[in-house]
Specification:
This protein is α/β, with parallel strands linked by helices. It contains 18 helices and ten strands. 34% of the residues are buried.
Length: 407
């Protein structure tokens, strides 16, 4: 368990006395006399807890508490005061303090609160470590980025269908990445150690279909744009599926297959067989809050591939990106990111939008980024943006944002 305690108090005698108490308890104190002196030791990776006096010259304990929570809302902060001020204690706990102690306090009381905070910190860090291990082995979290509700729901659907063995139909608009989703399904399935064969359905002859089924062995066969599968191959695939296959068939389409069936261009029985399990990829216009995250990722990817330094991405650029509908979805956004990384002009302008509309998009993107940084905590986000609570909530309502979507 972590043993580090960052202790901040402007009174040297008090600071040293409490530090000695911590040392005698076999803890590892780090002493500081002010916020300025302490802040460089604090980040989300700090593996200990913080004890700070409230009343200090310059930045006080409440400022330090706010700073810590902006970096890591789960980092315990214990506040000390020499005055028995009940309203101050209430405020401290309301703003997220882990504990509150009056000075002078008995060493046993002091150590009891510190030990409790250290155990809480150790549990948080262990849970984070385990979550990172899970996500490192979770292809959905690793390969399909996005923090929006729609992105999370899609990843949940993918994990659910991956556990089965039935056929899966992956639907989405052009450029949304149906083949990538199919690959993630394969990687999360029991067939992950077997081949993943990807083949375009357009013009696929029956013989070629059988060859690809054989190549997939006990793995997965992904048929891209299955709506373009020739009629003969449609009947052959249905026949193979009904006869039992060692391979799992995943099909992707950007077309409305129900319409293709009603207009006689796609076999109805095959459609219903493939549509047993479905994953729908939401378009970018449905989850615009994911655009900044995706754009940064694509820019970093492009810079790494081209051995270029990553350029800064101004908030107004992100605002303009979010103002667009992106009919080409992830593929179009990736192309824009590549142009931006190569310095071939700013990412696409929001054509037809006036200044008011563009400013609204910039404001929305700034609200989203702030909510994400504060882990969806509305109070901390409003403080970070220096907005009164009512103004902050009015802006959230205007832009259709909910803090809980970013927790």
């Amino acid at each position: 368990m972590t043993r580090r305690v960052l202790l901040i108090d402007d009174e040297r005698e008090v600071r040293e006395a409490l530090g000695q108490t911590l040392e005698l308890a076999d803890l590892d104190p780090l002493l500081a006399g002010s916020f300025v002196e302490a802040k460089d030791h604090i980040d989300a990776r700090f593996d200990g807890v913080i004890v700070t006096d409230i009343r200090m010259p310059g930045r006080d304990g409440f400022h330090l508490l706010s700073h810590v929570r902006s970096l890591d809302a789960d980092l315990p902060v214990i506040l000390l005061t020499g005055e028995g001020d009940v309203p101050m204690a209430v405020r401290a706990m309301a703003e997220g303090a882990h504990g509150f102690l009056e000075k002078p306090c008995a060493p046993s009381d002091f150590l009891a609160v510190v030990e409790k905070a250290l155990k809480a910190r150790a549990l948080v860090l262990e849970n984070r470590r385990l979550r990172l291990e899970v996500e490192a082995g979770d292809a959905a979290a690793r390969m399909l980025l996005g923090q929006s509700r729609q992105a999370q729901e899609m990843r949940g659907q993918i994990r659910a269908v991956a556990r089965g063995s039935s056929e899966v139909l992956v639907t989405g608009e052009a450029g949304s990445g149906t083949s990538k989703v199919a690959e993630v399904i394969h990687l999360l399935s029991a067939a992950a150690s077997h081949p993943f064969v990807k083949r375009g359905a357009a013009g696929l002859a029956v013989e070629a279909l059988d060859d690809n089924i054989a190549a997939a062995k006990a793995g997965s066969l992904y048929l891209d744009e299955v709506g373009m599968l020739p009629v003969a191959a449609q009947y052959a695939l249905l026949d193979r599926l009904e006869g039992g296959l060692p391979v799992r068939v995943l099909a992707g389409t950007t077309r409305d297959l129900a319409t293709e069936v009603s207009e006689g261009r796609f076999n109805a029985d095959l459609y219903y067989r493939l549509d047993l399990m479905r994953v729908r990829i939401p378009s970018l216009r449905e989850r615009k809050e994911d655009i900044p995250l995706l754009f940064r990722h694509y820019v970093a990817q492009a810079c790494e591939q081209a051995n270029l330094p990553e350029p800064p991405i101004p908030a107004d650029v992100l605002g303009r990106l979010m103002a667009q509908d992106w009919p080409g979805n992830a593929r179009s956004l990736m192309n824009a990111a590549m142009r931006f990384a190569m310095g071939l002009g700013e990412a696409q302008e929001a054509e037809g939008l006036g200044l008011a509309e563009q400013m609204a998009q910039v404001e929305r993107s700034l609200l989203i980024e702030a909510l994400r940084r504060q882990g969806g905590h509305a109070t901390e986000t409003a403080k970070a943006l220096k907005l009164p609570r009512k103004t902050f909530y009015d802006k959230l309502a205007r832009h259709g944002l909910r803090p809980e979507d970013y927790r």
